[in-house]
Amino acid sequence: MQLYYPALICTLVLLQGCNDKNASNTIYRPDNGSASVLRSNLDASLTEMIQQHGLTGDPAQDRTLPSIETPLAQLGMKLFFSKTLSGDLEVACVTCHHPLLGGGDNLSLSIGVNASDPDVLGHKRLLMGNLTPGVPRNAPTTFNIGLWKQFMFHDGRVEATAAGITTPDVPYPQPDPLAGANLAHAQARFPVTSNHEMRGESFDAGGTTQSCRERLAERLGGYGNPDNLLQPAETQYWLAQFRAAYQQPDAQAQELITEQSIASALAEYERSQVFTHTPWKQYVQGDLTAISDTAKHGALLFFRKRGEGGHECVACHRGDFFTDEQFRNVLMPPVGPGKGNTDPDNQQDYGRWLVTRNPEDKFRFRTPSLLNVAVTGPWGHNGVFTSLEGMVEHMLNPFQSALNYDPAQLQQANIPSQQLQRNLREMLGSNTDMAGQAYQQEDVQYLVAFLNTLTDPCVTSTACLSKWIPPAQQDPQGLQLDARFEP
Ligand code: HEC
Ligand code: HEC
């Protein structure tokens, strides 16, 4: 911390002619301190990097994504905010993916069912009693979800293969015939089937994932399901919404409101969340004033090769979407209950291995996109880092950071961390995909400044995001989740 201030100040002073010899040993920094030379050197080096990596600034350019104004996305928004899709009418998709929380929930580990107040979202959301979190992972953002080409989830358990989309409902890597038209559709069929996220313990108890979805569709449509908790006015409301969105004014609920038509609408809403108009994009597209010199330094560190004065983050965070969609073990400190463990003391999350059972995939997780990363914390698949600085320090030297990890930074109660050291030893005995490297403290600030240029201004503006949030109390039974955020 003490180190980077002089460096930063010197960078600023550099513009007026300070010679930055003390703080600098990265090779691209110019000796000549005149403002125009500095600016053009930085821009020239960055332009070279941008060309070398084939960046256009626009990760959405080869995609056709819906507007939020389309009828289907509008229906999807109402469903996304509706507690009718959870077993006990308490949880909605938006519980863990709120636009005002960066498309996530601001928690390290998500809290779905059994919240002490179901409508409180954000860092004040608590589990009833002193329960340990049941959801083992951090909720990724739904922003820009339509830009993923191959994988959904931290472990990629929904995957677009040549044969079709595979999901946890079928043995890997077979295609799931019910996966739907795109990754977001395939994914949207799963949260409702998860006990900890939305289903609870009693809804369709003993049923399959598919029967759970079908019972929910029957509930929404007011058909089939004998113990419906919805009032007739509520099911009428949904029928009208589906008829309008699917433009089938005379269709009956039974044919129109199905688990597929629900997932399809949810996916259209999520896919409309395209937030890519970042200062970085403006810069890549030619506006050299769109980002600060500090951020430009950070960008160079991000793109440059290790042997050439950089940290080569781009080796994995590649392209305009800042991910190669591959799986890596980057030694994220193993806290939390872990996933899929029958032994509650294990608390390990084997990541991609849980899908492929390939020993090499142990502890590997999907490289996240870095677009809007400043608003999607806590960071990592288990939300272990509660500051972006801490997360970046980890990526600079995962080994050192993991060994020194302090669970006290977690801002959420009852996240198990007793097995941290034991589990870390197991991780270290497995493949790791990243070697640590020496770095200077100021590099962290440069990199964070660069990452901050990847934020679309819309995602920090309540007014801009209001298109993705329905007006309060739209449905007759009051089952829309109108979030309360407590300071
Ligand atoms: C209790 C919190 C919770 C609820 C409710 C919830 N999610 Fe999630 N969501 C998560 C978590 C946690 C993950 C990551 C799980 C993993 O990777 O193993 C996730 C993953 C996702 C992803 C994948 C993102 C990516 O980058 O791969 C999408 C899309 C998504 N959820 C959409 C939805 C939709 C649609 C609903 C409602 C049907 C929903 N979620 C309900 C917590 C939640
Ligand atoms: C070897 C591949 C690789 C390299 C190199 C790499 N990363 Fe990552 N990065 C990952 C993976 C994989 C994750 C997710 C790990 C997890 O959650 O378990 C990640 C996570 C992150 C996150 C957290 C994102 C989120 O939404 O939680 C940030 C920020 C990040 N990396 C920045 C960087 C920076 C800055 C560098 C360069 C100093 C870098 N990364 C280098 C693979 C890499």
From TrEMBL:
UniProt xrefs under PANTHER family: BLL6722 PROTEIN, CYTOCHROME C PEROXIDASE-RELATED
Record key words, sorted: Heme, Iron, Metal-binding, Oxidoreductase, Peroxidase, Signal
Domain annotation Cytochrome c: ranges: 293-455
GO CC terms, sorted: cell envelope
Compartment annotation: Cell envelope
Taxonomy, superkingdom: Bacteria
Protein name, per record: Di-heme cytochrome c peroxidase
Keyword check for Transcription regulation: no
GO molecular function terms noted in the UniProt entry: cytochrome-c peroxidase activity; electron transfer activity; heme binding; metal ion binding
Major localization listed first in the record, in broad terms: other
